[in-house]
Amino acid sequence: MRKLILASALSVLVTGAAQAGEQYVDESGFAISGYDAVAYFDIQQNAVGTRQPEAVPGKALITAEYNGATWAFSTEANRDKFVADPAKYAPAFDGHCAYGLAQGGKVPANPNLWRIVDGKLYLNITPNVVGFWESDIPGNLTKADQNWTGKEAAPASSRSWKAIDDNKGTYSVTAPIEG
């Protein structure tokens, strides 16, 4: 019986490790393009159908490592919160576009196109995609979660969200900032 329990525990550990996905990191070299993952939870969200406030840029000198990536934070307090519970603050789907996952793809995400749903941060790729995402958030979440099972272990997207013309005007600051 003891061997069975140990074998089951080892199987869970091995399976979990095999399913760990790569964090989306763009040309900035940082997760969420250098924006502060914790700060999203302090920003007042706008109603569905209206644009969210811009994300808070992190600082290149205030960082932490998680899921194979470097994360930048606007304050040391935010970094400490993240380090204490990174799964709480890290965006769903390793920072890839939530609607993209609902459609079966692992594509980059724009950190300024965000929404927190049931305490979890979700990102999307373009303003147009936000409209599709928000037209049925519960249904899209169900599809994205189902698709994530088969996509999580795939390599992270290597595309840049800033290279997409539809994202022009979605940000005024490039993160992370110095200092």
UniProtKB/TrEMBL annotation:
Transmembrane segments: none annotated. It comes from the Bacteria. Residues 1-20 form the signal peptide. Keywords: Signal. Residues 60-92 form the YHS domain. It holds the Pfam family YHS. NCBIfam families: YHS_seleno_dom. This is YHS domain-containing protein. The lineage of its organism: Bacteria, Pseudomonadati, Pseudomonadota, Alphaproteobacteria, Rhodospirillales.
